Amino acid sequence: MRGGCGHPALAHDSRPRPEETFVKIFAYDRFKPGITMDTITPLLPHEVANVWRLWKAGIVRENYARADEPGVVIVFELDSVADAQRYLADFPLTKAGYLEWTCIPLMAPLPLESIFAPTVDVSSPYDRTPAAAG
């Protein structure tokens, strides 16, 4: 597992080595039927503290509130979905039976430039999107 903040694997050099494969796990939750914000509010301080500890340990890399519905998105940096599910199962709201989680494993993209034909322009400037009309 790749961690951060004091993790021995990153003590000297935080750059990934080619022989290592790190997986990010994109996890999002949904309230189970009948669960409301009022239901979960008493456990929120414990839930947030749990995520904060995992963030400090380098296990949680990103944490967001969902804009489309109540819930969160957490990006883990772990070896597998099974590892993420083990952490999620230990969250207070999950233990209470209030949440369902979906995990999506992510990996580094292919070296995209390797699939372009020589005639495709991938040179600078990289951002060629027209500016917004003002």
* Proportion of residues in helical segments: 10-25%
Backbone structural class: alpha+beta
CATH homology-level superfamily of the domain at 20-107: Dimeric alpha+beta barrel
Overall pLDDT: 83
List the total number of helices: 4
Beta content: 15-25%
Shape, please?
elongated
Which CATH C-level class of the domain at 20-107 is it? Alpha Beta
Largest sheet: 4 strands, antiparallel
CATH architecture of the domain at 20-107: 2-Layer Sandwich
Radius of gyration: 19 Å
Side-by-side strand order of the widest sheet: 2-3-1-4
Low-confidence stretches: 1-20
**Number of beta-strand segments:** 4
Could you give the order of the helices and strands?
Answer: EHHEEHHE
Distance separating the two termini:
47 Å
What is the CATH third-level topology name of the domain at 20-107? Alpha-Beta Plaits
What is the topology?
Elements: E1 23-31, H1 37-40, H2 44-56, E2 60-65, E3 72-78, H3 81-89, H4 92-95, E4 99-106
Antiparallel strand pairs: 1-3, 1-4, 2-3
What distinguishing features does this structure have?
single chain, alpha+beta, Alpha-Beta Plaits, 22% helix, disordered N terminus
What's the short version?
The chain is built from 4 helices and 4 strands, in the order βααββααβ. With 134 residues, it is of the alpha+beta class.
